[in-house]
Amino acid sequence: MSTSESGPRIVTLTSDYGADSLYTAAMKAAIIKHDPSVRIVDITHGIRPFDTNQAAFALRTTADHFPKGTVHIIAVNTNPAEDYVHKVMELGGQFYVGLDDGIFSLIADREPDALHDISVPSESDILTFPERHVFVQVACHLVQGGVPAVIGPKSNGWMDSEWQRPLQGADYLQGVILHVDSFGNLVTNIDQRLFKEVGKERPFNIPLRAARMNVTKIHRAYSEVPSGERVALFNHMGLLEIAIYHGADGSGGGASQLFGLKVGDTVRIEFDNAAQVGSLL
Questions:
Q1: Is 169 in contact with 230 (CB distance < 8 Å)?
Q2: CB 69: neighbour CB atoms within 10 A?
């Protein structure tokens, strides 16, 4: 595949560097030095330190919006160990460059098109910044239309890892919060398919901080409730999201602030065990 023929050269960055990090500037400078024509897109630098699950979630929810030929640099937990090696995954015409600590299996929803170990030498004797001294040169090679086979041999496999799946029973679902956005909206790992499968169109209750705050209805849009009111819906990813319409943390209060919930906390849906009633969706 030649990205020069198929569209713009795009390299994305996902990291746990935090805001205003000098590491981010160093990465961008290195990419520009290799190829000034590359468009650099910051997916996020707000990943929690070493949080592979959060990094994978960020890429799963954004990668499909990019064209084929895009290269994603994963600058999270990048230092190799005996069982963890640097790899390139090709998936859906895009490339992912990072440390195989299980993140590739979390990103992919199917078998990858190709998986290669990275064997190119580092551009520096300093081994503490492989995303700058290894990943950048690999990304620039790929985004210019280079083939992964030049980077290293085909990999024998990847480290397996799985999303924390919701617990389920006849009358309940129990998930976790995967992501809290800048508005304080809570994105869970409960998807619409599972909600329908377990709920069977029964009334339900999502307990929050107090009974008066509980959620008992799924909406289709934020604007279906008054400003400042709680709302639950299935977002563009098909995941259950709990929000405050026109709310934001630090400015009137988002769902995270008002309900005292954060990434990793539990969200439970309790279904009525009575006979089925009319559709709730």
A1: no
A2: 22
Q: Which of 24-33, 229-238, 242-251 has the lowest mean pLDDT?
A: 242-251
d(CA 67, CA 57): 19
CB 118 within 8 A of CB 86: yes
Q: What single letter denotes the amino acid at residue 157?
A: G
In CATH terms, the fold of domain 167-271 is Elongation Factor Tu (Ef-tu); domain 3 (2.40.30)
Query: Could you say which of 3.40.50.10790, 3.90.226.10, 3.30.479.10, 3.100.10.10 is the CATH number of the domain covering 3-150?
Result: 3.40.50.10790
Tell me the C-alpha distance between 62 and 43, whole Å.
8
- pTM over 0.85, yes/no: no
In this predicted model, what pLDDT tens digit does every residue of 169-185 receive, in sequence order?
999 999 999 889 889 99
Residues 6+ apart with CB under 8 A from 152: 88, 116, 117, 118, 119, 120
* Most distant CA pair in the chain, distance: 68
Site of tokens 């640099």: 73
Which residue, 243, 229, 134, is CA-closest to 184?
Answer: 243
Q: Cβ–Cβ contacts within 10 Å for residue 87, how many? A: 24
Element holding 104 (H helix, E strand): helix 103-107
CB atoms within 10 A of CB 210: 8
Per-residue model confidence as pLDDT tens digits over 196-219: 999 999 999 999 987 788 999 999
Question: What per-residue string of b and e applies to 230-258 under the rule 16 or more CB within 10 Å gives b?
Answer: bbbbbbebebbbbbbbbbbbeeeebbbbb
* Across 87-116, average pLDDT: 94
Which residues on neighbouring strands pair with residue 115, listed in sequence order?
89
